[in-house]
Amino acid sequence: MELDHYPRHPLERPTLSIVVAESGNGLDSFGIDSRITKFLKNNWGIDSFFPPQAEALTPVLEGKNLMLTIPTASGKSLVAYLGMINRLIGDMKGMRGAYIVPLKALANE
User: Fold this and answer.
1) How far is CA 60 from CA 25, 101, 107, in A?
2) Residues 49, 27: contact at Cβ < 8 Å?
3) Helix, strand or coil for residue 47?
4) d(CA 68, CA 85)
5) 3.30.70.20, 3.30.70.890, 1.10.443.10, 3.40.50.300: which CATH number matches 22-108?
6) Neighbours of 100 (CB within 10 A)
7) Predicted confidence (pLDDT) per residue in 19-60, tens digit
8) At what angle do helices 51-61 and 76-88 cross, to 10 degrees?
């Protein structure tokens, strides 16, 4: 998957489009480390992703940069966490990651 029309201006939206079938939204459909999927199922009760999460996970898990613009409480943070954690326990083992959020902006929402 390539961004054929990379934005020329910071506010221009990319034209990347991914279609994910509903049946392909299960945790086991993405190649996420089994320790993570087990945790999500057992501790958080998550057994599938919302369609926007499913669309975003493939490029995120491939290590690609992504601007995900979906409504509040749609699962953006989970996508970011999964991408980082999966890489840190996989091909970037021994490395560290930082997740930075605009806490004040999130608190206002």
Assistant:
1) 15, 17, 25
2) yes
3) coil
4) 18
5) 3.40.50.300
6) 6
7) 444 446 788 888 899 999 999 999 988 888 888 888 889 888
8) 30
